[in-house]
Amino acid sequence: MDDASVISSVPPVGSSWPAVGLADALGRVLADPGAPAHDLRLLRDGGENYPAWLAAIRGARERIDFENFIVADDETGRVFAEALMERARAGVRVRFLYDWLGSAARSSRGYRRALREAGVAVRVYGPLRPSRPHWFVRDHRKLLTVDGTRGFVSGLCVSDHWTGRDGVAPWRDTGIALAGPAVAGLDAAFAETWAEAEGDDDPPLPENAATPAHGGEVHVGDFSPFAPPDAVPVRIAHGRPGDRRLYRLDLLALATARSRAFLTDSYFLPTRAYREALLDAARCGVDVRLLVPGANDVPTLPAFVRTAYRELIEGGVRVYEWTGPMLHAKTAVFDGRLSRVGSTNLNPASWFGNYELDVVVDDPGFGAAMEAMFAQDLAGATEIVLADKRGAPALPRPVSLDARSGSLARRFAQGRWRESAASIGRVVVSAIAQRKPLSRLEAASAATLAAMAAVAAVAVALWPGILGFTVSVTLGWIALALFIRLVRGRRRVRLAEQRLAAQTRRLLDRLRRPD
């Protein structure tokens, strides 16, 4: 039986609402009690996402909030610009937020000038500033909300890459559309990054704009009077710099999976703890499958990703590589009911460093659609197997959740959740010591890493000042940023003291006046 039929034959798990224990755990991890959403749709690639986005934009009556990591000044980007500008000219409040690093080389001042001249408020997150050395913290969210009633979250940026160009197939990606009270959480997410960005003043809403009846204060189960009968529970997962909510979510989902965990990721560079979580789930009988790109828009990345393959495959995780031009989706589905769709990759930059945004859905109907999409993707992928073994590793028989919990407890008690050497080091060491035969992929990874190390070594040998110059510039930048912050901080303190003194004088003057 092939992978698609195996997945499609597995029945949905449980009822339409989550178990109380899991619901409580999700609420604590995400700091979000959840809200009902309706008209929930799973959207595949640019061919389904972009038309839905544009239809919502063109139908807007009050406000549009648009946020994306990359907005390119190409044919696709100009189509979106025209739609946004038309609505702004019609009196709709349109706010446009882009990331500086993601869009700087792909957009233009003329593109943004045209938006502003049409009445669109434009802000940029994280422009290069002497006072901001942490330029690696990015706004990686992909979000659109319209009139506070309809929202879209995805892994898609706005570029011809997602529509196809020059005979190249479009990138593979996934998005989600929703309506109802849960959109309030998306509006709150946009307000968060909009406040952190630089640019135009916040434009006013149209005079006749309505305030949502629920005011954004909704909880799981609060259906009356505004939730339709087809509503499903969703949570909006906000990822913030220094925040570990999405990381804890991914670990929780693996720890509670009973039968299967299907993961799709475009830039897979997990922490050691996350790799251990994958392996623990597989050892306990969970069917863990990971789909990653075979070819990547970051050409050197596959060499690093593939260093983890041997350990995962030997531990029972099944690994697949997409054979298309680029797999950019970031999704997961557990036990056919708990699903995650959004911008978060399985790597430290997304988990700990960026602004990210995902929608978490606990519903067997949506989970079935997610699993069907995953099965469709596996039909266009190649499973990676070890060179010294025939076929995929045998998966252990499923065990009960109680047995698995005991296994986890014993592993913690025995100190077996250890931090070991990185997978990259294991590949290089095994290549040198010949401790085990390397597969072709591992050999290719070792060759790529060796070439990169050789180039770095030659560069330092020929131009030794490069290393010192780089360190000097970095330290100088940090020192300048701290000095600027100190000056600005003292200035703010002085201004606050002056305002307080002025208020005190005015108060005393009023007290001295005779009645």
Taking the alpha carbons of the first and last residues, their distance comes to 93 Å
- How many helices? 17
Classify the secondary structure makeup into a structural class.
alpha+beta
Question: What portion of residues belong to β-strands?
Answer: 15-25%
Describe the biggest sheet? 16 strands, mixed
Tally the structural domains: 3
Question: If you had to describe this structure to a student in words, what would you say it looks like?
Answer:
Helix 8 packs parallel to helix 9 (272-283) and helix 15 (423-433) packs across helix 16 (440-462). The longest helix is centred in the last third of the chain and has 48 residues, at 465-512. Strands 8-4-3-2-5-6-7-1-9-15-14-13-10-11-12-16 form a 16-stranded mixed β-sheet, with helices on both faces. The relative contact order is 0.13. The chain is 43% helix and 17% strand. It starts with a helix and ends with a helix. The protein folds into three domains: 1-30 and 240-346 and 360-460, Endonuclease, Chain A (2-Layer Sandwich), CATH 3.30.870; 31-239, Endonuclease, Chain A; 463-510. By secondary structure, the chain is an alpha+beta fold. The protein is globular, with a radius of gyration of 25 Å.
